[in-house]
Every structure is written in structure tokens, then in C-alpha cells.
# Entry
Amino acid sequence: MHDELRIPLYAGALGFEVAALPHIYREIKASEEMQFFNCKKIPVRESTIRRELAKPDGRRVFHPCARRFRLKKWWLF
# Structure
């Protein structure tokens, strides 16, 4: 539970360079964040995920995302 927090903390403690959290969750109370990351069981749209993954500085973590889908060029990110 809470691996999105625990894993970066462990990695930092072990000396690994950890990407800044803004790529994960920018502002807890910002309503615009709900389209990317929420704990209200509002599914993140596949179109939103694909749009962000296409951006070099786009999001790489989405929650909740329970449906599998294929990326044509998964190796680009």
C-alpha cells in the first residue's frame, strides 16, 4: 500500500537518484489533478494517458488505471 511514496523513499535511502515528485502528483488539492491521479476511484481516461506519454515531460504515473492497453512505441519513454 502507498508504493508511490514508499518506493521513491527507499530508493533515495539506498542512494539512487529519484525523479522529482511533480511528475507523479503535483498538488493534492488541485482539481485539475483528478484527471491524472486520484483516490476517488475516478478512472483515468486512456486518451489522457496516451497524450501525457507522448509528451517528453508528460506524466508517467496515473491512478487509478485498471485497464490494460498497448502502446505502439513503449520504448520511447
